Amino acid sequence: MTGSTAYRGSMHFTCGYGYNLVGAKTISCQADVTWGGRVPTCKATCRAGYQLIAQTCIRVGLEEKDYEDAQADCEREGATLAMPKTKELDVALRNVIVNKYGKDSKYWIGLKESGSWLWADGSSLDDHDHHYQGWNPGEPASGIKAWFESSDCVQYWSGPTDTPMWDDTACGYNLRYICQES
């Protein structure tokens, strides 16, 4: 919202990503100290098949694919694998998984090791402003597990916590996945 609240002044309204403005973009202050029209609102919107969760449009892919095919499926829609870079989004995604699909399922998210941990958008896990990480205890894998299994991609996995958290595993497994609009 920008503009002036003085008599004859105008206020201009816009909405953030994932929201559409409902109502007039501009309203004016009247002589009787009222607005010349209704104050608009912002309504959440996501493309068909996606839902708004923690200010992010996401879609859960229920067909099982390996990491690369899951990422390619998201990219065909102009999306990426989900990137839970904040605790708010991470917890919201976990809740969707548990409440809709049960706690024992595994889902790819957009985090992969390529010398360092990189998100699907190319940003580094360590570079994020909040430095949030939602690993299961003992993850990412090291020692004997990492030696026996190439652990390059990240999934939501319930493991020892009984709630989905990040776990690195081989990229070739066929899992469900979560897409996030770019």
TrEMBL record:
Residues 1-44 form the Sushi domain. Coiled coil: none annotated. CDD domains: CCP, CLECT. Keywords: Disulfide bond, Signal, Sushi. Pfam families: Lectin_C, Sushi. Disulfide bonds join 15-42. Residues 53-180 form the C-type lectin domain. InterPro entries: C-type_lectin-like (IPR001304), C-type_lectin-like/link_sf (IPR016186), C-type_lectin_CS (IPR018378), Ca-Dep_Lectins_ImmuneDev (IPR050801), CTDL_fold (IPR016187), Sushi/SCR/CCP_sf (IPR035976), Sushi_SCR_CCP_dom (IPR000436). This is Brevican core protein-like. It comes from Branchiostoma floridae.
